[in-house]
Design brief:
DNA-binding; two-stranded antiparallel sheet; homodimer
Chain lengths: ~200, ~200
DNA sequence: TCCACCATGTAACTGGTTACATGATTAC
DNA sequence: GTAATCATGTAACCAGTTACATGGTGGA
């Protein structure tokens, strides 16, 4: 069955709406103004995208005309939508996820500490880091084997990729330590850390 | 007029065919096996893409049945196609090109030393580096202003982006020095470097 | 009054995805 | 003979782009 599956844009919408109930217009602004990744922002992408999510029961839009403002359709996650988002966030990282689209993994991460716990986030980062490591070493050995056959610009372009993924790998370690620190702070040095913490 | 413009995939095909006349199958393998960027590789993308280019007179495919092999349609650039490729490679980098798709810029770069001269490549890299610098500083100031309002994972995700673009920036400097070295080698230390060089 | 902006939508087109179909050649 | 792989293609579907349309609201 599984009606059909959610696109990356769909998950981006789900994640943003989870952070804060929003109208289509709000979401368009977010996509246009922030560096959240290169997603649409065009009305022809957002509004149909929202309709799709709503028709699948993942979000529900309610017109609010509280102030003197024009009707604004404010969307909120349904519990089904929340579950869908959580399932996406919890997906294990498969080999190949890094290759085609570390972007999507970063998008997932950026929604994590809202909807997942610190432990899950650290686990995600660890797995991401390992995947990056093996991907980088794959690229490096490819480079070692093929550098002679490649053009200068081709080789340099590959090196750019290697550096980029390596910087992501280093970032992942940095991020992990950031979460470890935040966990220590929120448990404030004592032994009694019931899971949950602030918010 | 301008029939219509070439997609990124179209330029990728043009660039690869320029490097080496290829069949659709060859190109699919290249996309599937190398880290050239995340392009199609599916037959439903490649073959129609090639047909589109051919119908616009940018490439021409000839069936070769030299060996006992099955018919293979080998594509070559036409002069019109070569001009289209050169024009794409020579496009100035506009603000915003970095934001949505450093990938495309890297693809352009990876074809450069085939079809453009060393000087043009260095100019491209310099301009790319400058664009990256200003983009990075924009992200950094956004981060400075908004860090308090952001979630931990949101902030970290942005920092990942900053690091990535900064690593590209550093790479650009590295690549520039690579081209300078190659130019020195090919003019072998003397004063008379007429532009052009090998090829 | 008119402009700018808030806010939503729609239609035509384009291109990519998945999945299927086909057939030739080579190696076992 | 049959499996793998070379090689090309096609069809149905889906999502995104551009461009246009509409209308409310607030301020000059």
């Amino acid at each position: 069955m599984a009606t059909q599956d959610t696109s990356v844009l769909g998950f981006a919408l789900l994640g943003l709406i989870h952070q804060k109930p929003s109208s289509g217009y709000d979401l368009r602004k977010t996509f246009a103004e922030t560096a959240i990744g290169n997603y649409s922002s065009s009305p022809g992408a957002i509004y149909p995208g929202l309709e799709r999510l709503e028709s699948r029961g993942l979000i529900r839009g309610v017109v609010e005309d509280s102030a003197g403002l024009r009707r604004r359709r404010l969307y909120r996650l349904t519990s089904k939508g929340g579950a869908e988002l959580k399932r996406w966030l919890a997906r294990p990282i498969e080999p190949g996820d890094v290759t085609r689209g570390a972007q999507e993994l970063m998008l997932r991460f950026s929604f994590m500490d809202q909807a997942s716990g610190t432990d899950a986030t650290i686990a995600f980062l660890t797995s991401f880091r390992d995947a990056l490591k093996s991907y980088v070493s794959g690229l490096e050995s490819y480079l070692r084997d093929n550098a002679p056959k490649m053009t200068l610009s081709g080789r340099l372009a590959l090196e750019c990729g290697v550096r980029g993924y390596r910087s992501m790998h280093d970032w992942a370690n940095y991020a992990i330590s950031g979460y470890r620190d935040s966990r220590i702070q929120s448990t404030s040095r004592s032994a009694k850390n019931r899971e949950g913490g602030p918010r």
